Amino acid sequence: MKRVAVDLHFLPCLEFFSCIADADEIVVSPLEMYQRQSYLNRCRIRLANKVETLSVPIQGRRPRLPLSKVRVDYTQNWQKIHLRGIQSAYGKAPFFEFYFPYLSPVYEQKHACLWDLNFEMLTICLKLLRYTGKLTVVDAIENEEVDLDIRGQIGPSVHFSERNYYQEVPYTQLFGLDFEPNLSVLDILFCTGPEAKKLLLSSVKN
Fold it and tell me: Which long-range contacts link 47-53 to residues 24+ away (Cβ below 8 Å)?
């Protein structure tokens, strides 16, 4: 049984899913520390003229806290900004009307902490992708036996080509002539629908 330890990213990128493509168990911990300039509270989507980053604002400028203690900041209107951005980016995508109703209700809630928000989003994405790997919550990943540990490795500051997990496999995107790799999983879901899982499996770097 293959166990993969991961950080709990917000609407993770394709590289994240290529890492867990053949995992029997995906191991996460609410005690993992929040990291600045990471994908823990941001994701990337493709608009008509650019790639846009959607960020979840948090309370405190540099919290040295476990993810389960990082509070989401609702003084900013980020939920409507996200929904508007996602609708602008993918409203005309082939599978938008099928998948969007699963995700939009999450934005209507007020999750107290980043951990709860990310966990619910990942659970939904795994379901939509028909991933069979079990999502397991543990106290301390250091005490677990895992086959692959990618914590702290996937981030926006280092290009995916520098790592040995993901290779781009182009699919038809809504905008632009050039393929934009490694966006949020939203991109491949809305653009390819049921084909998304097969494409992600083929994007695993050998």
Answer: 47/85, 47/88, 47/89, 47/175, 48/88, 48/175, 49/175, 51/180, 51/183, 52/85, 52/89
pLDDT digit string, tens, across residues 124-170? 999 999 998 999 999 999 999 999 999 999 999 999 999 999 999 99
Count the Cβ atoms, other than its own, within 10 Å of residue 142.
11
pLDDT band at 86 (very low <50, low <70, confident <90, very high): very high
Q: For 90-104, write each residue's pLDDT tens digit.
A: 999 999 999 999 999
In sequence order, the 6+-apart residues with CB closer than 8 A to the CB of 134 are: 24, 25, 26
0.90 exceeded by pTM: yes
Spell out the alpha helix ranges (H) of the chain.
14-19, 78-90, 96-107, 114-129, 185-192, 196-202
Task: Report how far apart, in Å, the C-alpha atoms of 145 and of each of 43, 116, 140, 142, 165 are.
Answer: 29, 24, 11, 8, 20
Q: Where are the domains of the chain?
A: 3-202
Q: Report the amino acid identity of residue 97.
A: E
- List residues bridging with 92 in a β-sheet: none
Please answer whether residues 134 and 122 qualify as being in contact, where contact means their C-beta atoms are separated by less than 8 angstroms: no
DSSP state of 66: B
